[in-house]
What does this fold into?
Amino acid sequence: MSTTKWTLDASHSEVTFKIKHMMISNVSGTFAKFDVQAETEGDDFTKAKISFTADVNSINTNSEQRDGHLKSPDFFDTEKFPQIKFVSTKMVLDGSDYKLTGDLTIKDVTKSLTFDVEFGGIAKDPWGNTKAGFTISGKINRKDFGLTWNAATEAGGVLVGEELKMHAEIQLQK
It folds into this structure.
């Protein structure tokens, strides 16, 4: 069977995240610029080779001041580390969905993580292009990647939670 190359359909994809603020609510954000590439055997995503990159300078949390702080050495240090990278090591079928495991690199730290992948299916659009849809979710402990900045609150809590909830809607095209 031949190798199929899939590229990101950026206009039908998004990468978002949520993290606790003051331990009482969530702050949401997005990465406006990112890329996904995949290689499969035919249309079978089992054992797919997947790579993801996000331009950290494209982070948007609806607060210019917060975005600037996130880009600073306190957090992502985008001057030294402008990209977040993920390279799959395995993708296994889990019922009708997948578990995607791979190496996530944030700053200069790489850790193996597993994400849940809901497979939306494969379809042809009205112009004859073959598309595949995925909903990807998972949790990342920011401290595991050296993102340790925090501040105490008056009530004795912390300003920023440790666990980041990641969510992506990804549409790929052949």
Remarks:
- The first strand starts at residue 3 and ends at 8.
